[in-house]
Description:
The structure is a homodimer. By secondary structure, the first copy, chain A, is an alpha/beta fold. In chain A, 40% of the residues lie in helices and 16% in strands.
Amino acid sequence: MRKMTKITLDEREMPKQWYNIAADLPGPVNPPLGPDGKPIGPEMLAPVFPMNLIEQEVSTQRWIDIPEKVLEILYLWRPTPLVRAYRLEEAIGTPARIYYKNESISPAGSHKPNTAVAQAYYNKAFGIKRLTTETGAGQWGSALAFATSLLGMECRVYMVRVSFDQKPYRKMMMRTWGADCVASPSNETQAGRDILAEQPDTPGSLGIAISEAIEAAVTDPSGETRYSLGSVLNHVMLHQTIIGLETKKQLEKINEKKVDVVIGCAGGGSNFAGLSFPFISDKINGADIDVIAVEPASCPTLTRAPYSYDHGDVARMTPLLAMYSLGHTFVPPPIHAGGLRYHGMSPLVSHTLRHGLIRAEAIHQLECYDAAVLFSRTEGIIPAPESSHAVASVIREANRAKEEGKEKVIVFNLSGHGLMDLVGYDKFFKGELSDYALPQTDLEKYTEILRAYPDPL
Amino acid sequence: MRKMTKITLDEREMPKQWYNIAADLPGPVNPPLGPDGKPIGPEMLAPVFPMNLIEQEVSTQRWIDIPEKVLEILYLWRPTPLVRAYRLEEAIGTPARIYYKNESISPAGSHKPNTAVAQAYYNKAFGIKRLTTETGAGQWGSALAFATSLLGMECRVYMVRVSFDQKPYRKMMMRTWGADCVASPSNETQAGRDILAEQPDTPGSLGIAISEAIEAAVTDPSGETRYSLGSVLNHVMLHQTIIGLETKKQLEKINEKKVDVVIGCAGGGSNFAGLSFPFISDKINGADIDVIAVEPASCPTLTRAPYSYDHGDVARMTPLLAMYSLGHTFVPPPIHAGGLRYHGMSPLVSHTLRHGLIRAEAIHQLECYDAAVLFSRTEGIIPAPESSHAVASVIREANRAKEEGKEKVIVFNLSGHGLMDLVGYDKFFKGELSDYALPQTDLEKYTEILRAYPDPL
Lengths: 457, 457
């Protein structure tokens, strides 16, 4: 008998706790370091984040309650459906059963509101009235604009200039939710002005935008502003685990007992961690699961960068984080998956790779667009360019299952829709997009600076 | 105890039949007339529509089975959630309980795929390989592109030139689903060439686009092309009733026994009919429900136009339909709710108004944008400009309930999201939008031509 296409949960079935993988990881997790090369204390982060989030950042408690007020907002679109991709399977002719977690139905169109709502809530509970942040393609900035709007807070977003110009609708979206969005680098911060003086035509980068957003938060004399980050940090990964926790419940509901492959795209790591960490928990306990983080071949953090201490931003305002990093001055080629154009990677995700709990795959942009078009024309949803990397990897795995004649179960995260990113599709159809080769010597030039930092190994 | 925010159904609970209100309507329904003023037979429509849809168009059978293949595609996003708008209620301070049916989560972003999938399916079952249609703002063209893509058919969309130029994302969306979208008037049809010869710089109109789409269908020598319409006709209303049927099940599920007010915006009538017809069925059987169709004050078909026979298009290629009509040459002011800029109205919706089963309300654009911004900032979803008319009416009713101190239950259709229409919001925030007064003498000028047609009363 045909199983259901779409597995839904009602809100009484939604997980009421987040899963903290820090409780279960093998080996010591390298702590963030301050400018003196020593582990930083919570007080050093206090100008940037509220103390309740800092506590989550360093927590090793396995399960953390989701506040009722956060649940109330998440209920507007969660639990999200898990969908069996029958039509994609047929198009590939694979014996694999493919499921996607549809995070694209959130009001902001991606998984990002899962942590945006939580972060806005904790900040507000701490007395903060205003949040600043950066955004690449705009998914994160939109999500925080959405969250602060529903919680009655102010929000200012520094958007990487190349995306700001490519995607004007994003700014309008944030404005509708009451947030301000400015192109980065901007003239509003010292960090922005410094970079504009040196490179007036820079396309910007997430690293630069982060520096501006942090500066804007810590220099607000009222003390009522904090900074919010949409990926990379431990508490962000934590908030996203609701994705994987729901997915496991949904698979249970249809009696799908064994998952073989779990796939997510990875820029800073949050949608990948959100889906995969609850499965990696099973893997730590002996389950045989192939967990794949997919990144752009033009920003190959997990596949070609060293594991090192590095800053999360260009202006070196963040502590040193132990992670795979291309070096904080690396400016990725202008691929359309703006959310994956990040030099570093979540320390927790980096840790799982270093310990062999996951593997990483780098895919070029054109293969991703091909995959996205096939997905659009079979499953109907136009994927975000970021999510198209997961789709491309799923198609590779489904073809492998076909060659091997194996009935594998593949689960992936459709982290967002591409309705705000259609210009990329248009250029793809016109043949105006290309892949970008990154010679090893180029990468070495950027990662050279990492030698100056402590070695985490 | 707080009730659930979001009431979901799993796909086993989805209605398996559409509801045909023609079986229950009081009074005789006026038939479409041919050029000779006599009721047309099915054979006259055969070059335009496949016979299986023509049979649905004239059916008076109360329940019509939804084909399994149609259900399989609808399952990708249906049943859609019914959401309790707690946060909007709180913002208004109303004792009313407000629920919205969230049709915005379909892959195309609106309710339109409900009929697009059904129409594509019936055409394909009849041996048709290619569909043509027109689109104004683009919601309908996108939905048909989505549906034909999943059914492996070709699709050509004639998009009003001014919208084609103003909303380039819509064209890219259709292209991603494999459909061709051309600006209308085009050089591809005689109708288009004639108009271009006379007015090379014309911005185009829905009437011209309909003429081109019909011509392209009926002149295809292979006989494998038909035309598809996204609203107005009986079979379109039928396919949309799944919205209201699901809603009734969802209200039952939370034991919400009595609905007081049902609200939908109305352009051609399809999302309004989809939600309201199953409730009007109860009303015909004695239930006390206030059913409100909301239209733009600048295109006041239901509130200020006569009930008359008129053509559905400017070029008078369609049969004469009995409906409220502003006259087929009426050109509505350029409000951003492009989907509501239609001179006529579904004959079935018109019939329910004439018989007092519904009432109509006209609201100006600025009040609708105000309402949409409040909805965006409380419930999180940015409404399509069309849907914002329903939101504005809901706010009026919720305020009335507050004044009267009544615990009313209000249900409305959030027919689509506004992520492709953010330019309208941008202009609203910049103060560049205005309301448009329509002097009675202007309306009389347009409706004068209706005197030449048979009187349906």
